[in-house]
Amino acid sequence: MSEISTAPQRRRPSRRAAILLAGGIAALAFALDQASKLWVEQTLALGEQIDVLPPVLYFRHHLNPGAAFSMGTDYTWIFTLIQATVLVLALWWFRRLGGSWLWALALGGLAGGVAGNLTDRLFRPMAPGDGGDHTFGLGAVVDFIGVPNFAVFNVADSFIVCSIIGLCALMIFGWGIDGSRERAEASDKDETPAS
Predict the structure, then answer these.
(1) What predicted TM-score, i.e. pTM, was given to this entire model?
(2) What is the residue-wise DSSP string for 116-130?
(3) Which residues are catalytic?
(4) Contact 142/154 with Cβ under 8 angstroms?
(5) Are 44 and 60 in contact (CB under 8 A)?
(6) What is the rounded radius of gyration, in angstroms, for the C-alpha atoms of the chain?
(7) Largest CB tally within 10 Å, which of 22, 65, 162, 194?
């Protein structure tokens, strides 16, 4: 006679609930990013710096036409294409959500962060050294969060990095987008005695 498991089952979200959560996180990330960038543009002159928690945190208004650490500043259009592709892929993966709150949080954060920086690339002017003109797809990203001995970044970057770390952890530990735990399920099957 088989034993009946009395362990509580974790409640998994329905597909609809997971998609709504991912969409809500994406909207929140996008809104926080764009609102913070608007605040910086209205409060700080370009290059101006204010100490927030000295010496570990400061805000400095910076325009970045390149990638992280201002690399690839002459290839802004490539980053625009990459970000557009990542956003489309993240939204496509929304369709597969269902059963995992963590996947919904990570995909939502990634989509919202990428959408925030992509909005800058598409609609903000280029960096002042380029004449400050607006060319669709070649805009500079507004960065302002600074910590010592590190790059200046923004809210969207924070969401992107945290979400990618989360997605990598989910994949490493075998959590499927449907909420299944691949390695745990495989080991359970191996340990099940043959009847």
Answers:
(1) 0.81
(2) HHHHHHHHSPPPGGG
(3) 143, 157
(4) yes
(5) yes
(6) 21
(7) 22
Decide: residue 136, CB within 10 A, 0-12 exposed, 13-18 middle, 19+ buried: exposed
Residue 79's CB: how many other CB atoms inside 10 A? 23
Distance (Å) of CA 68 to CA 29, 78, 136, 173:
19, 13, 21, 28
Read off the amino acid at residue 105.
L
- Whether the link from the prior residue into 55 is cis, omega within 30° of 0, is yes
β-strand partners of 181? 175
Tell me the torsion sign for CA atoms 166, 169, 171, 174: negative
pLDDT in tens, 59-115: 999 998 876 655 656 667 788 899 999 999 999 999 999 889 999 999 999 999 999
38 in Cβ contact with 118 (< 8 Å): no
Q: Are 59 and 52 in contact (CB under 8 A)?
A: yes
Do 18 and 97 form a contact (C-beta atoms < 8 A)? yes
